[in-house]
Amino acid sequence: MGFAIDLAAPPTPFAVERRFRRGSFLVLAGAPAGAAYLIRAGQVRVSVPAAPGRETTTAFLGPGQLVGLGGVLGRPTYHAFARAVTRVVAWSLPPEGLLAWLPGDPALLDLVLSALSQRLALAEGLLRDVALYRVAARIPDALERLGPCLGGEPPALTRGALAALVGARRETVSRAAHAAGAVPAAPAAAGR
Amino acid sequence: MSAAGSAVGLAPDEAARLAEHMVKSELLAGARLAEGDEADARVRLVLGGSVRLFYQSGGREITVGAVGPGGLIGLGPFFGRPPDGRLAEATEPTVIATCAGARFLDLVRGEPRLVRALVALLCDRVVQAEHHLTQLTQADAPARLMRVLDELAETLPSPSGTRRVKSVVRHEDLAHLIGASRETVTRTLKRLEAQGRIRRVAGRIVLQPVDLA
Questions:
Q1: Which of residues 42-71 of B touch A (CB under 8 A)?
Q2: In this structure, is residue A117 part of a structural domain?
Q3: Checking CA distances to A53, which of A140, B13, B29, B131 falls within 20 to 30 Å?
């Protein structure tokens, strides 16, 4: 997927490149929302805490997506965890600086609005799927909605991660995938 | 309805200024907008009233958002969101202003306050939707219902610690918000009342103070 800007170059003069190992957190839910991250490479799992020790996976995001929305909203803390599921390279941006910069940079503004629109479409689609559809119907829909959020990259999903995304148990997802043959063989169905 | 809605939007003066370049129309309660129609890549700015965003399937519904004054509908398709059957319906007499997505963005670009408001509005919608999803997948029906009632109730408690839900809400609307059937909502409300967690006074739901003892 092509982007309106070159993600390899700093999107603003004050952007700082950050690298994250697989499994490390870009942001922690409840932590001070000091930065937003524009993903340059790799994939991130977003999850929102629920009851103590429990969380809901709400998105997998890739290049061109923005993580750390709490700061952009002017909230003191992040609302979600963002954890690298592959090696991730991201541009760290102070939220206030980003908001001040966007009006003068139409290409970056379009990228940000597009990223947020895609993430909203994913979240609303998952809401629809979880409330109204059987697991077998949720899977292809979730995978289709993930495409734009991952910048065209194939999702680095295990079956467990896919199950978390569609609000089902891993076993149910495996059964549904087997019965429907609807899930691509890899990597989404490459259960671990 | 604020439980699935947004507290963030364009300020009234900003919305009014934008609306001068858009086509205004009035909707009756229950009127539907042509959401998700590819040929209809228009942005709607809500100037007054409220629009509910929802999906329908097999006779069931889930409300995914409510857009009040200063809120926007229809920006997604401009950024490649495919039609996915999302519906939009005025929940009360509503005034909207409409224009093509490209025109709307031209109006917004270069205006720092509008850009800031637009980005915040979308961020807020994402955060709300992700919280709603978490609520739907993690909690049981009573917990989901209590959370929705809590969001719909007055912020400040009365001297006795009770908090009244701001308006009369139909069981059906609550069902659409929590992804349950109307019958489940009716049953759950009765159970919550029996447990002393809510009272019903003149058709309004009143949240009882939490007993920390």
A1: 53, 55-58, 60-62, 64-65
A2: yes
A3: A140
Neighbours of B35 (CB within 10 A): 21
Distances (CA, A) of B197 to A168, B143, B156: 30, 11, 17
Q: What is the pLDDT of residues A30-71, one digit of tens each?
A: 999 999 999 999 999 999 998 777 888 999 999 999 999 999
Q: In this structure, is residue A52 part of a structural domain?
A: yes
Measured CA to CA, the distance from residue A116 to residue B125 in angstroms comes to: 9
**Segments forming the whole domain that contains residue A176:** 16-184
Q: Are A128 and B135 inside 8 Å of each other by CB?
A: no
pLDDT above 60 (res A85)? yes
Domain with residue A53: its CATH number is 2.60.120.10
Exposed e or buried b per residue across A116-142, where buried means at least 16 C-beta atoms within 10 angstroms of its C-beta: bbbbbbbbbbbbbbbbbbebbbbbebb
Does a structural domain hold residue A98? yes
Higher pLDDT, A60 or B154: A60
Average pLDDT over residues A171-188: 64
Within a domain: A6: no
The Cα–Cα gap between B53 and A110 comes to 24
Structure token pair of residue A67 = 């993580």
Give the ipTM: 0.90
User: Which tokens is B199 given?
Assistant: 């009272």
The model's pTM is 0.84
Residue bearing tokens 């507290």: B7
Domain count, chain A: 1
pLDDT at A178 over 80: no
Phi and psi angles of residue A88, each rounded to the nearest 5 degrees, phi first: -125, 135
Contact residues, B window 94-153, toward A, CB-based 8 Å cutoff? 105, 109-112, 115-116, 118-120, 122-127, 129-139
- Residue among A82, A72, A96, A100 at smallest CA distance from A42: A82
H-type helices in chain B, by residue range?
12-19, 75-78, 101-108, 112-138, 141-152, 171-178, 182-194
